[in-house]
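Supplementary Note 2. Why include the ligand at all?

Several targets in our set were suspected to adopt different conformations when bound, so apo predictions alone were not considered sufficient. For every target with a known small-molecule partner we therefore ran a joint prediction. The input for adenosine-5'-triphosphate is given below.
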Amino acid sequence: MKEFSVSVASEDELVAYGEVLGKALNGGLVVYLRGDLGAGKTTFSRGVLHAFGHQGPVKSPTYTLVEPYEFSECTVYHFDLYRIADPEELEFMGIREYFDENSVCLLEWPDKGEGVIPKPDVELTIEKRRQTRYLRLSGESEKGQAIVALVAASNANITATR
Ligand SMILES: Nc1ncnc2c1ncn2[C@@H]1O[C@H](COP(=O)(O)OP(=O)(O)OP(=O)(O)O)[C@@H](O)[C@H]1O
Ligand SMILES: [Mg+2]
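The joint prediction is reproduced in token form.
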């Protein structure tokens, strides 16, 4: 499945969708998170990390650029490239080394890394309309499309608990 979209009424529901995506992810995958400031990219990432077993808070990596979360099966790297002025800065920090078959990379503001970061498997766009968020999930590789299909199949469970 190439695309799946849904509107989300609350922060909890956004986190629930993050968990559903997280359950479908495994090593070697790259996820782009798009949307304006405050759209909910970090909130969604919290759900993804919950799915891997992370319990604590998820801080925005705006200043640190990347936060690593180590799990037994893989490491999830949560990036926020907002403050990058030139993608070359990412070359200097050796960003390419983060992307391998044992890592899941979540990237907020992927535009800032254009030309340096790998292409995504899954792209999420969050559109903000007051309290409601409109999510669009797009499969950008074969694996990504299988993941989008899995999330769409789990959708019924989430909407049933509304
Ligand atoms: N339905 C909703 N889903 C998600 N967040 C919501 C919702 N309604 C309100 N919010 C609020 O919107 C904010 C989303 O912030 P978040 O840090 O996740 O955004 P972001 O996209 O990561 O922004 P940035 O680009 O600054 O990193 C939070 O303060 C959250 O409480
Ligand atoms: Mg954020």
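Residues 5 and 136 are 4 Å apart (CA to CA). The longest helix spans residues 142-160. Comparable summaries for the other entries are listed in the accompanying table.
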